[in-house]
Each structure stands twice: as C-alpha cells, then as structure tokens.
Amino acid sequence: MDWETVCTNTNLRDLPYKVELNARGQIIMSPARLYHGRFQNRIGYLLETLASHGESVTECAVKTTDSTKVADVAWFSQDRWNQVKDDFEAQLAPEICIEIVSQSNTKEELQYKKSLYFEAGAIEFWLCDQEGEMSFWESDQEIKKSKIIPKFPRRVKITR
User: Fold this and answer.
1) What whole-number percentage of the chain has pLDDT above 90?
2) b vs e for 86-120, b when ≥16 Cβ sit within 10 Å of the residue's Cβ?
3) In what order do the strands lie in the sheet with 96-100?
4) Is residue 153 domain-resident?
5) Has residue 119 been placed in a domain?
6) How many domains is the chain partitioned into structurally?
7) What mean pLDDT is predicted for residues 1-23?
8) Which of 45, 77, 115, 122 has the most CB atoms at less than 10 Å from its CB?
C-alpha cells in the first residue's frame, strides 16, 4: 500500500489514530492522548506567529526510505512549501520536523524517525516531551535553540 491509497481510501478516512506506513506498505497506527493534539496546536500556533515566512503543518506526511512517516508538526519555508503543497506526501522533507513524545513512543523509534527525516532533507528535528520541554537537533547534534526559528521557546505551555 502507498500513501496516496491510504489518503484516498474511505475506510481509513476516520481512523482515530495517527497512521504511518512501514517499508512493506503496512499501516502502523499509534494512539495518542488529547494533550498530544493540544501540543500540536500550540506548536503550530507558535510557528505561525514566530515564522511568518513559511507554512506550518500538523500531521505532515514525509516520504522516507522506510515508507511514509508522519511528523506531528512541521515547518516549510515558502520555497519548499510551493514544491510539495499539492502532494499526498512531501518528497522533500520540511526544514523542521517535530515529534511530540507519547507513551507509545520509544527512544529508539524517535531516534530512527529523526534519522529518516534528516535523510529526506530536514534541516532541524525538534522533540517535545510530555511536559512541553523542547529539544532541538541538527543531524546527530543537539543544539541549544533552533537556528531557523531562534525565538521558539524551550518550553511549550498548555493547560493539562
């Protein structure tokens, strides 16, 4: 199965889980708590506010060497956005891919997704833990703050 089939299949349209594909085209579903969506919303809002020169996307499908992975939140420069905006999945990763840690995630899984996003062309990878603490990465090196959006806070606050 490919990502376009997943997106256009009416039986899969209303699944209550985050959906991704593995290398064999199998659907992987990950349940998430409501706070997860709240963090997505808040991070997207902050990106829109602090980086008006690009586009933020939640549930951003990215084509990787291990099929389609879905970043919880992503940010594209206007140039990259113009290249992918009509596609089912981004063939070129957004400049920033953001994952929000949920109880079903493992460190190994998040590390693997980070490497896949960089391989697909991401410039930064951000991680938001369950308390809203942010970490920022360039390839395999953690950085103190984003170089693309340096005013992004180190902690995202939501009401829980």
Assistant:
1) 68
2) eebbbeebbbbbbbbbbeebeeeeeeebbbbbbeb
3) 54-64, 67-77, 96-100, 124-128, 134-138, 141-143
4) no
5) yes
6) 1
7) 67
8) 122
* pLDDT at 2 (0 to 100): 72
Q: DSSP for the chain, please give it.
A: --HHHHHH-TTTTT-SSEEEE-TTS-EEEE---HHHHHHHHHHHHHHHHH-TTEEEEEEEEEEETTEEEEEEEEEEEHHHHHHHTTSSSBSS--SEEEEE--TT--HHHHHHHHHHHHHTT-SEEEEE-TT-BEEEEETTEEESS-SSSTTS-SB-----
Does residue 160 belong to any structural domain of this protein?
no
CATH value at residue 92: 3.90.1570.10
Domain that holds residue 86: 32-143
Tokens of 54: 């690009």
Return the closest-CA partner of residue 152 out of 38, 56, 33, 18. Answer: 56
Residues in a beta bridge with 69: 62
pTM of the model: 0.84
Locate 113 and state its tokens.
């997704």
% of the chain beyond a pLDDT of 70: 82
